[in-house]
Design brief:
It contains 5 helices and 7 strands; from the N terminus they run ββαββαβαβαβα. By secondary structure, it is an alpha/beta fold.
Length: 205
Amino acid sequence: MIIHTAEFTCSYVDWKKCPKEHVPEYAFIGRSNVGKSSLINTLTERKGLAKISNTPGKTQCINFFSINKEWNLVDLPGYGYAKTSKKNRELWMKFTKDYLRRREQLQNVFVLIDGRIDPQNVDLDFIQWLGENGIPFSLVFTKNDKPKKTFKNIENFKETLLETWEELPVNFITSSVTNVGREDILAYIDQVNEAIANDIDLEEE
């Protein structure tokens, strides 16, 4: 997939007010400071598209980016620690989960996992919630800048997940430094978009 255009379009805190257009959507979410903004900028090859910050909790809305005017990339607030009140964190998670459960255009949630650290309960709990609610998702192991150091942690995460899951979801290993994984994620999105288009064509016939 070649990214010709990538434009920020809107932000909301209420899923009911999100764009009415029926184009495929792909959401990105993870713990605060997992490298979400860096990954979004890498995928789109736009350095300043998503704002990067060292302060946890920078993303506070459901942010929409139109890609090639064909599908939407959705940047969701991070879960876990953030430099804000507990009330704010609970509010962010409420409207995020409302979006994830009810948004018909949503095709897949890319859950970002920091490949440099051991499995975290907050990640495992969120993945479990997605599964219980029947929300399609993939795993994206970020910050794989030094594969020899991250390999063991990634394998540990997969093994931990298999303790409660029969099989692993589709997963990607990425680095915003080396661009590893970029083409794989875009190819996956392309594949899903093509399947959706084919279903529509069949219905029209």
